[in-house]
Fold:
Amino acid sequence: MGWLQSGQAGASLVMRRTLVLVTAWVHRVEVESRLDATVPGRISRMFEEKLDALAQMMAEHMAAPFPPGFRGLDIEGRDMVLLDADSYAYAAIVLEGPLDEQRRAGLSRLTAAFEKVLPAIGDEYGVKYYTHVRDMAVLAAEIETLRDK
Structure:
């Protein structure tokens, strides 16, 4: 790749990451505007803090490079690209509003998959990357639990 192409690719990546940050912020503002005033104050504050943390984790996730060698890799029967994409998708949906029962079950299965996958990853950066992905999915599940209260 030539210098010019490399610069264009870098600019494109910066633009995509900026778009992700803006999108996460917009989702956060939309969710905040829909918060139910009947939720007790303490739960409401905790809920808001967790939504903020989830939006931040999503932005950090999009800024992190995907682990080299993990494209097309299956670990413990899980495609690592899909595990990554599914986790981000569930987090994005949780930021928008409550999950239906089918998606809640899917998120639960997804978070459970990390118990098998993480110990089987032999790459230090891969472990760090997918631990962050797992934490993002677990936080999304916690937010769903708070919605039930």
About this structure: Residues 23 and 59 are 9 Å apart (CA to CA). The helical segments are 3-34, 41-63, 80-96, 101-120, 124-147. Strands lie at 74-75, 78-79.
